[in-house]
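hiii so um. not sure if this is the right channel but i have a protein structure encoded as tokens and i wanna go backwards to a sequence. like what aa goes where. can anyone help
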């Protein structure tokens, strides 16, 4: 069985999500798989990890590996422009200015950037999946990731409500203005197409044969608590995390009184991880001697995540 074609990497801020994502994508690419890594975290790190400027569009990082850093503010502007273009010719010319003003006001409301980010993520999954063997998503810290991953379900319900209201309006127009003859409604058609697009992405994200989720945590109290809460929330939405990467585990050759005390505490947290997540496979990655800041250190880290690819194969 092949590793999952789409992999979402989540976790608390600062635990090593981007490093794990980059190392996993690198390991896949070096095994001969054409791989795309996408950062949806507004605090992008891919450029720093690969020492290359990673753009809003696909940037080649190394042989068989490409990267994208999604810019939420740029995506929001593009999304709003797309909404305006969709409405061109659908509203009376005297109303255009007012409609655009309303759209611009809506673009500044909470959640607008998230909606735009979700729209880009949807496009990447639908348009790039056939061009790559694997797509690895380096996501934002936990809360943001959960909202992003649960949006297909929420948007589906929202779109159903919008379509129902639009259908009712159209039926009223049909009776009042067109003697019962059906009235063309291009807005309904646009909404229907968006619903179909969201449904297609939801099917892919919910399909465990195609999509995998892994969370990165450190053997510390807060990351364990946050990961537990995140896995429960995702489980309630039908999204199941099978693999945990426990990063920055003290290596066996670390010595000294200070590290001896840390190791005793760490052992308690590793036991807590095993008790808290009995259904998940855990992969331990030792604390590295140096920051992951060069091609060599990234390669060394990638060797540690190779078992992760095997875990993904067996699920």
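sure thing!! here u go:
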């Amino acid at each position: 069985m092949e590793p999952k074609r789409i992999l979402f990497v989540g976790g608390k801020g600062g635990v090593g999500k981007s490093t794990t994502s980059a190392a996993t994508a690198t390991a896949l690419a070096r095994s001969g798989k054409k791989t795309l890594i996408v950062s949806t975290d507004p605090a992008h790190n891919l450029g720093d990890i690969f020492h290359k400027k990673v753009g809003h569009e696909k940037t080649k990082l190394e042989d068989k590996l490409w990267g994208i850093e999604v810019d939420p503010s740029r995506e929001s502007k593009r999304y709003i422009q797309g909404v305006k273009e969709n409405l061109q010719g659908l509203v009376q010319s005297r109303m255009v200015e007012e409609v655009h003003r309303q759209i611009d006001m809506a673009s500044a409301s909470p959640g607008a950037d998230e909606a735009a980010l979700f729209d880009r993520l949807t496009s990447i999954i639908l348009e790039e999946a056939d061009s790559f063997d694997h797509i690895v998503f380096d996501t934002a810290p936990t809360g943001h990731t959960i909202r992003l991953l649960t949006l297909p379900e929420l948007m589906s319900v929202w779109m159903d409500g919008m379509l129902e209201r639009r259908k009712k309006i159209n039926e009223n127009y049909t009776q009042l203005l067109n003697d019962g003859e059906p009235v063309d409604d291009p807005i309904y058609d646009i909404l229907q197409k968006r619903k179909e697009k969201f449904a297609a992405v939801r099917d892919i994200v919910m399909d465990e044969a195609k999509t995998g989720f892994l969370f990165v945590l450190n053997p510390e109290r807060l990351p364990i608590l946050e990961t537990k809460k995140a896995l429960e929330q995702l489980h309630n939405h039908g999204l199941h995390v099978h693999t945990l990467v426990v990063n920055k585990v003290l290596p066996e050759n670390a010595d000294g009184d200070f590290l001896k005390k840390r190791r005793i505490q760490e052992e308690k947290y590793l036991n807590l991880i095993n008790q808290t997540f009995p259904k998940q496979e855990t992969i331990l990655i030792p604390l590295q001697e140096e920051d992951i800041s060069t091609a060599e250190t990234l390669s060394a880290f990638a060797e540690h995540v190779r078992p992760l690819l095997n875990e993904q194969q067996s699920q």
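oh and The first strand starts at residue 6 and ends at 11.
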